[in-house]
């Protein structure tokens, strides 16, 4: 079809372009619910079937919370292997020292097992992690205690 024969060309200057009174065929109301329009009206059955939690507030976000960076025992063993490969591991009292504070980790949790003695420097740890480290012959200390042990 040639452009000159299109309806849009024929309707130029007619103000409503064949859509009746002014305002019809405009704005979001006449689009039939694009996006999230009509969820509480004609799309209510869809909400009930597929997204029951669409309305309302869910949970609480604390804006000033400190991120708690933690590592489990499996990750700790990987860190030790990487440090040994790079040659960046020190020893105190015959134990390899892993300073998690320098790596930006605040807490050690017990996920997995560790089968070698280590001296781990960390701010906090779980009871289960402490038990597992001590069973392997290792030691858990805080950064303040490290100064006393190193000297």
For the biggest sheet, the summary is: 4 strands, mixed
- Give the low-confidence spans: none
Give me the number of helical elements: 5
CATH topology of the largest domain: Ribosomal Protein L15, Chain: K, domain 2
What share of residues is helical? 25-40%
CATH architecture of the largest domain: Ribosomal Protein L15, Chain: K, domain 2
Which structural class is indicated by helix and strand composition?
A: alpha/beta
Count of structural domains: 2
Which short descriptors sum up this protein?
single chain, 151 residues, alpha/beta, Molecule: Ribosomal Protein L15, Chain: K, domain 1, Ribosomal Protein L15, Chain: K, domain 2, 2 domains, 4-stranded mixed beta sheet, 3-stranded parallel beta sheet, 5 helices, 7 strands, 15% strand, elongated
Give a concise summary.
With 151 residues, this protein is of the alpha/beta class.
General description of the model:
Helix content is 28%, strand content 15%. With 151 residues, the protein is an alpha/beta fold. It folds into 2 domains: 3-50, Irregular (Molecule: Ribosomal Protein L15, Chain: K, domain 1), CATH 4.10.990; 70-150, Ribosomal Protein L15, Chain: K, domain 2, CATH 3.100.10.10. It has a 4-stranded mixed beta sheet, sandwiched between helices. Strands 1-4-6 form a 3-stranded parallel beta sheet. The longest helix is centred in the middle third of the chain and has 14 residues, at 73-86. The mean pLDDT is 89.
């Amino acid at each position: 079809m040639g452009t000159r024969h299109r309806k849009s060309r024929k309707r130029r200057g007619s103000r409503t372009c064949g859509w009746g009174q002014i305002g019809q065929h405009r704005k979001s109301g006449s689009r039939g619910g694009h996006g999230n329009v009509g969820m509480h009206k004609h799309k209510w059955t869809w909400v009930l079937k597929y997204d029951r939690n669409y309305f309302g507030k869910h949970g609480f976000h604390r804006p000033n919370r400190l991120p708690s960076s933690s590592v489990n025992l499996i990750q700790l063993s990987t860190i030790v292997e990487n440090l040994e490969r790079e040659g960046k591991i020190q020893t105190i009292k015959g134990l390899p020292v892993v300073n998690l504070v320098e790596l930006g980790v605040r807490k050690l949790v017990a996920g997995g097992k560790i089968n070698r003695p280590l001296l781990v420097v960390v701010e906090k740890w779980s009871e289960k992690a402490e038990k597992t480290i001590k069973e392997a012959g290792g030691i858990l200390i805080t950064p303040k205690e490290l100064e006393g042990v190193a000297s």
